[in-house]
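> forwarded from #structure-qc
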C-alpha cells in the first residue's frame, strides 16, 4: 500500500473496515493498517484525520494516514498484548485493583479522545488492547452511528445519538463485566435494547461481595440511563478509581469532582502564557490541548531537592575535612580533595532506600502510582557501562522495564506527555528490533532515547529523582 506498507495478515474485521498486521518497509518495523470502508470517501477521510488528532499514552498512536485505491487508511502502532475481551475469556473476573487500573487507563484514553472532539461509538472489551509494555490503549474507533445493538450500547445510542457520555456508559458495562464475569444486560435484539432503556442493572456486589461500595456506586453511576447524570468525564472516572484503589490519595489531591454533574459541555479554554508547561497538564491531555485545566497545581519538589543537595554537600565537606586531618596525623601526603561542581551539586540526591516488592516510590502527584507499571520483582546486577553487555533477563525484558519506568512517571503526572509518548514510540520500535534478533539496532535505539531523555530532564520535562531518572542512572545512561 502507498509503496510503503506490506500487508502480511488480516487480524480484524468490523463495521468500520479491516485491520492488517503490516510491515513498514521504509521504517523497517511492524505496524497495524486499518483500511476504512462502509462510508463515503469524505466521511472516511474526516474520520481518519479526527482519530489521528488524538495523541495520548492510552490511545493507539496513529503514525500515518493516506489513501490506496480510493480507500482511506490509517497506520497505527502494532499492539502485541491481549485485548480486555481476550483476558476475560482466558482469566474470568479480574482482581479488583487490576480492574481499577485497567478501567482507569481506558477512561483516560476516552477522555483524551472526547477533548479532541472524537467519540469512540463502539466501546467494548475488545476496544482496549495492551501494548508490549502492558499499557492499555483504546483502539477501534467507529465511524457510523447505525451500529448493531450490543451488550454495551447506551440508551441514547439506540435512538441515534452519540455523546461522550455514551462511551462512559459502555465503559461502565465493560467494568461490570471485568468485575463480575458477565455484562449487566444479556439477550438479543429488542429484548436487549429494552433492558438498556428501562431496566436497572443489578449492583455488581450482588455477584461479587468483596467489591468495595464506592466501586459499586461508580459502576452504577456510569450505567445511569440519563447521560447528564453520569460522571462528567473520563478524567472524573479515572480519579475516582484511583481514590478507590488507594484511599489515601484523596488526602493529597484534594476533593474529587462531583459524581452528579450538570449536562456535559466542552470547557472554554482561556489564553494563558503557561499552557505549554507540562506541569499544568493533567493525565489525559492531548496534542491539541490549548488551555488551562483548572486543577490545583502539583506540589513543587524543588525545595526538597535543594535541601537534599545542601545536606549532601555538607556531608561531603565534613568528610573531606576529616580526611585531611587524619591524613595529616600520619604525615602522609594527600591529593587535593575534589570539589563537586555546581551542576553535580544540584543533581545529587541521597541513595534511595530499597523498595519492597509490590510498592512504589513516593507519588508527588498523589495519583495512584501503585496501579501503574511495577518495579522488578527482585534486584538484579546492573550493567553501569552503558549497555555494553546483555542485561540480565535479556533485551526484551530490559526494554520492557525501561518502558515501565516511563509509565510510572506518567501515572504520577511527573513527565511531559509528549516526552513520554516519544519514549514509548522509540521503545516499542526497539522492542520490535530485539524480538527480530537485531540486537545492535535495539541497543542503538535505546541509547538514542536515553540521550534524548537526559536532555529532556535538563529542561525539566521530568523529575530527576523519579523512577525514570533512577533507571537511567542505574544503567549508566546519563553519562
Amino acid at each position: 500500500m502507498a509503496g510503503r506498507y506490506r500487508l502480511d495478515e488480516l487480524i480484524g474485521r468490523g463495521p468500520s473496515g479491516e485491520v492488517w498486521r503490516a510491515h513498514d518497509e521504509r521504517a523497517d518495523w511492524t505496524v497495524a493498517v486499518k483500511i476504512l470502508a462502509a462510508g463515503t470517501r469524505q466521511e472516511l477521510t474526516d474520520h481518519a484525520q479526527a482519530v489521528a488528532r488524538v495523541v495520548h499514552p492510552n490511545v493507539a498512536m496513529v503514525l500515518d494516514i493516506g489513501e490506496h485505491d480510493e480507500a482511506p487508511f490509517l497506520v497505527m502502532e502494532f499492539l502485541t498484548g491481549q485485548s480486555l475481551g481476550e483476558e476475560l475469556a482466558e482469566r474470568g473476573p479480574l482482581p479488583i485493583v487490576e480492574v481499577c487500573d485497567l478501567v482507569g487507563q481506558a477512561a483516560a484514553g476516552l477522555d483524551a479522545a472526547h477533548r479532541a472532539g472524537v467519540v469512540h461509538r463502539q466501546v467494548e472489551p475488545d476496544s482496549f488492547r495492551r501494548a508490549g509494555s502492558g499499557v492499555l490503549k483504546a483502539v477501534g474507533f467507529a465511524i457510523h452511528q447505525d451500529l448493531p445493538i450490543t451488550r454495551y450500547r447506551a440508551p441514547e445510542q439506540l435512538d441515534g445519538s452519540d455523546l461522550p457520555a455514551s462511551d462512559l456508559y459502555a465503559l461502565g458495562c465493560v467494568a461490570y463485566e471485568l468485575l463480575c464475569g458477565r455484562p449487566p444486560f444479556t439477550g438479543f435484539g429488542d429484548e436487549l435494547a429494552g433492558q438498556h432503556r428501562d431496566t436497572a442493572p443489578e449492583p455488581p456486589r450482588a455477584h461479587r461481595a468483596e467489591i468495595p461500595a464506592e466501586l459499586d456506586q461508580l459502576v452504577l453511576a456510569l450505567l445511569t440511563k440519563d447521560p447528564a447524570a453520569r460522571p462528567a468525564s473520563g478524567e472524573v472516572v479515572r480519579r475516582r478509581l484511583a481514590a478507590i484503589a488507594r484511599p489515601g490519595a484523596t488526602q493529597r489531591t484534594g476533593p474529587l469532582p462531583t459524581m452528579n454533574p450538570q449536562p456535559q459541555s466542552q470547557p472554554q479554554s482561556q489564553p494563558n502564557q503557561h499552557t505549554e508547561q507540562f506541569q499544568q497538564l493533567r493525565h489525559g491531555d492531548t496534542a491539541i490541548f490549548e488551555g488551562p485545566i483548572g486543577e490545583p497545581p502539583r506540589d513543587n519538589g524543588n525545595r526538597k531537592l535543594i535541601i537534599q543537595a545542601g545536606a549532601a554537600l555538607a556531608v561531603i565537606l565534613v568528610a573531606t575535612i576529616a580526611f585531611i586531618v587524619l591524613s595529616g596525623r600520619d604525615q602522609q601526603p594527600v591529593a587535593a580533595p575534589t570539589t563537586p561542581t555546581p551542576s553535580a551539586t544540584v543533581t545529587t540526591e541521597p541513595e534511595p532506600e530499597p523498595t519492597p516488592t509490590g510498592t512504589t516510590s513516593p507519588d508527588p502527584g498523589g495519583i495512584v502510582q501503585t496501579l501503574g507499571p511495577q518495579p522488578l520483582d527482585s534486584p538484579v546486577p546492573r550493567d553501569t557501562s552503558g549497555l555494553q553487555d546483555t542485561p540480565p533477563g535479556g533485551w526484551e525484558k530490559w526494554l520492557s522495564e525501561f518502558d515501565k519506568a516511563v509509565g510510572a512517571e506518567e501515572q504520577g503526572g511527573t513527565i511531559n506527555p509528549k516526552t513520554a509518548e516519544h519514549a514509548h514510540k522509540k521503545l516499542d520500535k526497539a522492542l520490535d528490533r530485539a524480538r527480530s534478533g537485531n540486537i545492535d539496532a535495539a541497543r542503538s535505539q535505546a541509547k538514542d532515547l536515553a540521550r534524548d531523555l537526559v536532555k529532556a530532564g535538563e529542561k525539566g520535562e521530568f523529575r530527576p529523582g523519579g523512577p525514570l531518572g533512577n533507571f537511567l542512572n542505574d544503567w549508566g545512561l546519563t553519562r
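QC bot note: Residues 249-301, 329-385 have pLDDT under 50 and may be disordered. Residues 415 and 460 are 9 Å apart (CA to CA).
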